[in-house]
Amino acid sequence: MIRKFRLSAQTALLIMCLGVLLLGGCSAEGVQSASVFAGGTVTPSPQINLTISTINSTPTPLIVNTMPTSTPDEPTATSRPINIVARVNGQDITLEQFTAELDHYVSADPSSPDPNSPAGKQMAAQMKDSVLDTMIQQLLIAQDAARNHVTVSDQQVDDGVKSLIQMRGGQDQFNAWLAASKLSEQDVRGLIRRELLATAMRDRIVAQLPHTADYVHAYHIVVATQATAQMILAKLKAGARFTALAQQYSIDASTRPDGGDLGWFTRGTGTVLWTEVEDAAFALKPGQISPIVHSPIGYHIIKVVDRQTRALTPDDLAVIEQNALNKWINDLIKKATIEKYI
Prior knowledge:
Elements: E1 5-6, H1 18-23, E2 35-36, E3 47-48, E4 84-88, E5 91-94, H2 95-108, H3 118-147, H4 154-168, H5 171-181, H6 185-207, E6 212-223, H7 226-237, H8 242-249, E7 261-265, H9 275-282, E8 293-295, E9 298-311, H10 314-335, E10 337-340
Antiparallel strand pairs: 1-10, 2-3, 4-5, 4-10, 6-7, 6-9, 8-9
C-alpha cells in the first residue's frame, strides 16, 4: 500500500517560478531566497523579496517521498500508479505534466545546454525535485483559491498575454520565444493564470494584515561575559550614563558608536536579530533598564527610551507580509495529504 503522510515543513515562501519563466530564465542556480538579512545584531533596512519565486531546498525535505522502503520482514510495496508522479489531497500530477514542466524550466534558461545532451539531462536531474515541489505548491495554492472562491477571468489572462507579447517586442518575437522555450500559447495562458491566481491569493492575505504596530526605541550594551555585564549594571545603578558605558564596553560594533542605539523597532521584523533582546525591550517602560539578558552573542543590558503605536515602516510591513505568506504556505503543507512517487 502507498502510505499517506501529513507533512510539516521549514517555513518557506515557495510559490512558483512563473515570473522567471515568463521573463525568460530559470535555472538550478536561479532559484531565489525569499528574504535576505545582513549580519550583525541589527539590520536597519532588511532586504525583502516578495516576488513570486522559489527558494532553495532546506536540509529537512519540504515534500517527502511516500514510497516505503521494503525490508526482509515486510512485503514489497506496490509500484507507483502508472503515469502519476504525485498526488496532492487526492488530485494527481501526471508524468506528462511533470515532464513538460521540467522541460520548460530547462529550456527557459538561455544559457542551458540542449535538453537531450548529457549536460542537459544532468541539469534536468538536478532540477527535478525542485520542479516537482513547485508543482505541488502550485496545486496547493490552486486548491486553496478554489476553497476561497478566488478566480481569474479569461479577460485577465488575455490582458496578461497581450502584455507579454508587448514585452517580448511583438508577435514575431513572442512566437520565437515560444519555440525556444518549448511552450505553446496555451501553455503560456496556463502559466499566466497560475501566476495571477497566486498573486490574487497573496493580495487577499496581505489585505488582512495590520498597518500599525507598537514600536520601542531602545539602546543596549552587549558584552562577552556575565561578570562584565554585572559590573556594568552596577555602574548604571550608581548613576553612570548608559551611552558612555555602551561606547566603552559594548562588543556590538554596529551600535557602539551611537551609544548602543538600536533605533525604533517592532516585534517580529528581524530588525533586532535576537528575540531575547526584542522580548526584553517590549517588557520595559520608557526610562527602565532591563536585568541581564543572555543571547547567542553575549550578555545584554537594554534601556527603553520611548514607546509608540505608529504606522509600520515600508521595510517592516514587507517583512510582516512575507511572514504571513510563509505561514500561509507552511499551513497548506501541514494540512495537506501529499503522496510523492518519484
